[in-house]
């Protein structure tokens, strides 16, 4: 589609966010490097019309959508709610992990079973639940760490309960006590730590971090644009004030000249009167 075929209509914030989502997918898939991504993202948030948005995704694939990648028809957005992520009665994609003088990871889009068992010996493991789905509203992470460690990462909104026992080791209880969001799962961390530890951290998902960075970038651009407009307005006012002052000075000079002429006329009239008195005296 050529630029002439795209209507020159004003784009909304939702339209710009859809383009930003396509760009995020492209950089995640390696289709764009970070420099290209940042340039296109800046152009996205500066764009005011569809004609400006369309070239930004013209060379990027959009599954299920024909070119142009920016659809001018608004479609309902798919949410990532807890109702979508908690699949009661489902099966976990992984139910256990072992690390002996090595390590393991469970991260990304995976389904947490009702009970996940893991064991580390002189090694470490990471269980990242930020992008995970859950097979039940309450899941148990049973971790045994012998001279090793296990890190459990949960997203905001998830309630955490820690019930593990440590012998010359310990479990992290700092994330306990925070109430969960409605519909969010409850994660119970239990097990045993000997000369090792089981940590619990609460972190934002990578997509949410990226969204916040883009939001801050957009706010920075808006503040910069506002400052530029304010500076231009101040410059116009200064120019107008200077012009008004110049006209006032010119008018005042004319009045002074007229006043001088009046004094001269008054002086001549007085001279004539004195001359007539001298004639009458003679």
Description:
The chain has 282 residues and is of the alpha/beta class. It contains five helices and 13 strands. The chain has helices at 13-28, 34-46, 50-53, 82-85, 206-281, and strands spanning 96-100, 103-106, 111-112, 115-121, 124-128, 133-134, 138-146, 149-154, 159-162, 165-167, 170-171, 186-194, 197-202. The strands form three sheets. Strands 1, 4, 7, 9, 10 and 12 form a six-stranded parallel sheet that branches. Helix 1 (13-28) packs antiparallel against helix 2 (34-46) and helix 2 crosses helix 5 (206-281). The longest helix is centred in the last third of the chain and has 76 residues, at 206-281. It is elongated and about 130 Å long. The N and C termini lie far apart (109 Å).
Keywords:
single chain, 282 residues, alpha/beta, six-stranded parallel sheet, five-stranded parallel sheet, 13 strands, 40% helix
Task: Please mark out the parts with pLDDT under 50 across 5 or more consecutive residues, or reply none.
Answer: 71-79, 254-262
Q: Compute the separation of the termini in Å.
A: 109 Å
Largest sheet: 6 strands, parallel
Strands, total number? 13
SSE topology string: HHHHEEEEEEEEEEEEEH
Overall shape: it is elongated
Rounded to the nearest angstrom, the radius of gyration is 38 Å
Number of helices: 5
Strand content: 15-25%
Helix content: 40-55%
Mean pLDDT: 81
- Secondary-structure-based class equals alpha/beta
């Amino acid at each position: 589609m050529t630029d002439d075929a795209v209507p020159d209509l004003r784009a909304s914030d939702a339209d710009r966010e859809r383009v930003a989502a396509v760009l995020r997918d492209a950089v995640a898939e390696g289709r764009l490097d970070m420099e290209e991504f940042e340039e296109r993202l800046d152009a996205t948030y500066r764009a005011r019309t569809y004609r400006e948005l369309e070239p930004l995704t013209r060379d990027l694939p959009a599954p299920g959508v024909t070119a142009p990648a920016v659809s001018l028809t608004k479609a309902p957005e798919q949410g990532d709610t807890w109702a979508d992520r908690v699949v009661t009665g489902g099966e976990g994609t992984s139910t256990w992990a072992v690390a002996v003088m090595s390590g393991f990871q469970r991260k990304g889009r995976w389904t947490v079973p009702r009970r996940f068992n893991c064991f580390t010996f002189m090694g470490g493991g990471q269980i990242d639940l930020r992008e995970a789905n859950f097979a039940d509203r309450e899941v148990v992470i049973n971790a045994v760490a012998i001279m090793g460690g296990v890190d459990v990462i949960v997203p905001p909104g998830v309630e955490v309960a820690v019930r593990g026992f440590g012998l010359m080791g310990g479990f992290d209880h700092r994330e306990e006590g925070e109430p969960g969001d409605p519909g969010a799962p409850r994660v119970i961390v239990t097990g045993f730590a000997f000369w090792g530890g089981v940590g619990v951290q609460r972190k934002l998902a990578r997509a949410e971090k990226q969204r916040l960075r883009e939001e801050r970038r957009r706010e920075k651009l808006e503040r910069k644009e506002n400052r530029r407009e304010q500076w231009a307005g101040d410059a116009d006012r200064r120019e107008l004030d200077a012009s008004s002052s110049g006209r006032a000075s010119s008018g005042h000079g004319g009045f002074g000249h007229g006043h001088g002429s009046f004094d001269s006329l008054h002086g001549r009239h007085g001279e004539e009167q004195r001359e007539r008195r001298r004639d009458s005296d003679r």
